[in-house]
Amino acid sequence: MMMSVGRRAVSDEELLARTPVDPEAFGCFYDRFEAQMLAFFVRATRRADIAADLTAEVFAVALASASSFDPDLGKAGAWLFGIARHELADTWERGRVEGRARRRLGIEPLALTDETIERIEQLGNEAGALQLLDGLPDDQRAAVEGRVLQERDYAELATALRCSEGVVRQRVSRGLRTLRRRLEQAP
User: Fold this and answer.
1) C-alpha dihedral over 170, 181, 42, 101, to 10 degrees?
2) pLDDT band at 1 (very low <50, low <70, confident <90, very high)
3) CATH code assigned to 136-187
4) How far, in Å, are 80, 139, 160, 162, 184 from residue 155 at the CA level?
5) How many helices and strands (H and E) does the chain possess?
6) Residues 6+ apart with CB under 8 A from 18
7) Most buried among 31, 62, 151, 156, by the most CB within 10 A?
8) Alpha carbon distance 166, 57 (integer Å)
């Protein structure tokens, strides 16, 4: 079994690749994306309990299908949020969180405390600040999200955004400058 030391340097894609032989790798992957996933679902549903159920289901689906993840088709985070969007659409269509993947894996239903619900709601409120990003031009938003929220390096972003590192740096700088101005102007 792999030691946890140094796993921060391991890419999300590598964590998924290691998951079938090292279950702790998926735990690290989960830790990296849990808060983002909860915030995404709180923004989408406005309900902490549903956000928690959807987050659990998404990670169950991801765990069950980690061995089929293909890094040649995209980044692990994008793959995970693709699963999230699919689960959200299914939930809207059915009117409830189905939980099939969790049942298939034998994962018990979530028992949420008031404290947990408050924390999830807080993530949603913090995510409200992320709505400022929506007003940025697409190229700046993608660069700021990638660099600041996902903590990707400039070289990786340049490849993903199909431009030079200098252009990515410029987009991040302009986007952050715009966000700073908006925050200063906010009441």
Assistant:
1) 0
2) very low
3) 1.10.10
4) 22, 16, 9, 10, 31
5) 9, 0
6) 2, 10, 25
7) 62
8) 39
Is the pLDDT assigned to residue 50 strictly greater than 70? Answer: yes
How many CB atoms are located within 10 Å of the residue 159 CB?
12
Indicate yes or no: pTM above 0.90.
no
Region 72-90: mean pLDDT is: 89
Render pLDDT for 126-172 as a digit per residue (tens, 0 to 9). Answer: 555 556 677 788 898 888 888 876 778 899 888 888 999 999 999 99
Positive or negative: CA dihedral 106, 109, 112, 116: positive
Task: Say which DSSP state 157 is in.
Answer: H
CATH topology of domain 9-128: Rna Polymerase Sigma Factor; Chain: A (1.10.1740)
How confident is the model over 28-40, as pLDDT tens digits?
Answer: 999 888 888 888 8
* Amino acid present at 167: V
